């Protein structure tokens, strides 16, 4: 009997012991966690849940050593460079060369003008006459003779008149055309240019009837105004280092021929002692 009671008591103690809660573990009884050793060459990573050790540096996202980062670290994106088309560069080069050429030509012309100071020659009518001048409803005739004084005002440039084409006109009608002899004119020199024309028929028969009527009325006053036109192919030259070719246009307007009487067929230029200067254009 005694043994049975003892057994009951021991069972009751064990139940009471099992039902009581266990005390919380203390730091002294907790075993130290075991972690794998750090990789060679890298600092140990901090463990989650624990603050960094005193005196330790904060974690760094980059790489603390000179070892190259993995390939994924680099962002090797292709860079797009704007390549200039070849034709655009070629056109730009041509335009630049043309601009430089124009500037050089302008500078050359300015320097030449400063050094040589080229001047246009002067022309003035000295004499002008007509013989056997007849007009009718269908045609006209006449022999013309003119003498012009040509002067070279340049001090450093010689002039050569290689071709001289002259016209005799009345109003807008051309009465005669001829060529004068070429000649050379040295610096600050003067020369006489003689021209002869022979007229036999109008250049525009359809317009001549009206012109003939006006010319007949003006001739009845014994004085008729004619004009001379010249195209002169001229060369300006200074030694052998500078030469320039130009075409001069000479206009001698309102040259009054005095016939003396309305029925006269011969007339001459009356300048009343004044020479008629002509306009010269290049």
Automatic annotation (TrEMBL):
Q: Name one GO cellular component term.
A: plasma membrane
Question: Is the Membrane keyword given for this protein?
Answer: yes
Q: Where in the cell is it found?
A: Membrane
List membrane-spanning regions: 90-116
Keywords attached to this Swiss-Prot or TrEMBL record, sorted alphabetically, are: Membrane, Transmembrane, Transmembrane helix
**What is the top-level taxon of the source organism?**
Eukaryota
Q: Which GO terms describe its biological process?
A: defense response to other organism
InterPro entries to which the protein is assigned, alphabetical: NDR1-like (IPR044839)
Bias (Low complexity) ranges: 1-11
| Region feature (Disordered) | 1-41
Protein name, entry field = Uncharacterized protein LOC111447106
Gene encoding the protein: LOC111447106
